[in-house]
């Protein structure tokens, strides 16, 4: 039994390590990534042996204690959890920089690494899709600017930023962070290939989101264009035909 002064997380971890049904545990969320604030809770991913899922759900309920949540998988389920293309794939970034608390299987470090990155065999498809989605939303944003639709311009610009970040991170095999982690991610784990600093990228994104600023959007397009060409994605750009040139010239046309 935990002493009155022992932190509930420490008590939980000690109990998990002594439980023969538990094969390993990971710390997810902001604490697992080293992004914790005074408001951060503990998101504990627990991997249990096959056949022990139901009783471990009872033993370790989701709301285990105040500020402690338990997410439980059996080993077989954990191996396929967040598989690329699955309904849970949106949460693959959860596994980026995730802290391994302990592992009795020898498998968990490799599984965390695999889940926390864009699979090599899918990277080109992700790059092509996200680049095209980015250009599409930027194009729609500029059309809204042309038409005097300020709200539409900002909404389309916001969608374009999400696609742009997916593209920029996928170039390095990484998942784009959840929006609330973007500044922390870029500060602690900057993108190596960018032709501008993390602070400059954040400032550029802020300008785009604030007002769908045309100059800022065109600057982001130039950055994406250069990176796309280096990555051999010229075909995605060419598919936009004359509209691609219009996006670059918009606002400077005679």
Please characterize this protein's 3D structure.
- The chain has 2 domains: 108 residues, Beta Polymerase, domain 2 (2-Layer Sandwich), CATH 3.30.460.10; 130 residues.
- The protein is an alpha+beta fold and 254 residues long.
- The chain contains 12 helices and 5 strands.
- The longest helix is centred in the middle third of the chain and has 27 residues.
- The N terminus is likely disordered.
- The protein is elongated and about 70 Å long.
Features:
254 residues; alpha+beta; 5 strands; 2 domains; 5-stranded mixed sheet; elongated; Beta Polymerase, domain 2
SSE blueprint and pairings:
Blueprint: H1 8-17, E1 22-28, H2 29-33, E2 42-48, H3 53-59, E3 63-65, E4 68-74, H4 75-80, E5 99-103, H5 108-115, H6 120-146, H7 150-170, H8 182-188, H9 198-211, H10 214-230, H11 234-238, H12 241-249
Parallel strand pairs: 2-4
Antiparallel strand pairs: 1-2, 1-5, 3-4
Helix pairs in contact: 6-7, 6-10, 7-9, 9-10
Summed up, the helix count is 12
Distance between the termini: 78 Å
Largest sheet: number of strands, sense, barrel closure: 5 strands, mixed
Q: Which of globular, elongated, flat, extended, rod-shaped describes the shape?
A: elongated
Number of domains: 2
Query: What is the typical, i.e. mean, pLDDT?
Result: 94
The number of distinct β-strands equals: 5
Quaternary structure of the protein = single chain
Work out the radius of gyration.
22 Å
- Helix/sheet category: alpha+beta
Helix/strand order, N-terminal first: HEHEHEEHEHHHHHHHH
* Helical percentage: 40-55%
Low-confidence segments, given as residue ranges, are 1-5
User: Strand share of the residues?
Assistant: 5-15%
Lateral strand order in the biggest sheet:
3-4-2-1-5
């Amino acid at each position: 039994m935990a002493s009155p002064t022992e932190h509930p997380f420490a008590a939980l971890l000690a109990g998990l390590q002594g439980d023969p049904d538990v094969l390993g545990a990971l710390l997810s969320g902001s604490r697992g990534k080293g992004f914790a604030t005074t408001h951060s809770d503990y998101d504990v991913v627990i991997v249990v042996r096959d056949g022990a899922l139901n009783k471990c759900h009872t033993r370790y309920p989701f709301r285990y204690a105040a500020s402690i949540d338990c997410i439980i998988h059996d080993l077989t389920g954990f191996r396929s959890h967040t598989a690329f293309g699955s309904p849970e794939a949106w949460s693959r970034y959860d596994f980026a920089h995730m802290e391994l608390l302990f592992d009795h299987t020898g498998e968990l470090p490799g599984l965390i690494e695999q889940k926390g990155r864009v699979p090599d065999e899918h990277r080109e498809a992700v790059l092509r899709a996200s680049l095209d989605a980015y250009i599409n939303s930027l194009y729609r944003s500029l059309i809204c600017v042309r038409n005097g639709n300020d709200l539409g311009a900002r909404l389309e610009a916001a969608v374009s930023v999400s696609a742009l970040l997916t593209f920029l991170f996928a170039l390095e095999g990484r998942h784009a962070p959840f929006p609330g982690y973007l500044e922390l991610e870029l500060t602690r784990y900057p993108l190596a290939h960018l032709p501008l600093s993390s602070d400059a990228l954040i400032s550029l994104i802020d300008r785009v989101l604030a007002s769908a600023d045309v100059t800022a959007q065109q600057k982001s397009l130039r950055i994406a264009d250069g990176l796309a060409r280096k990555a051999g994605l010229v075909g995605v750009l060419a598919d936009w035909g004359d509209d691609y040139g219009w996006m670059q010239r918009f606002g400077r046309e005679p």
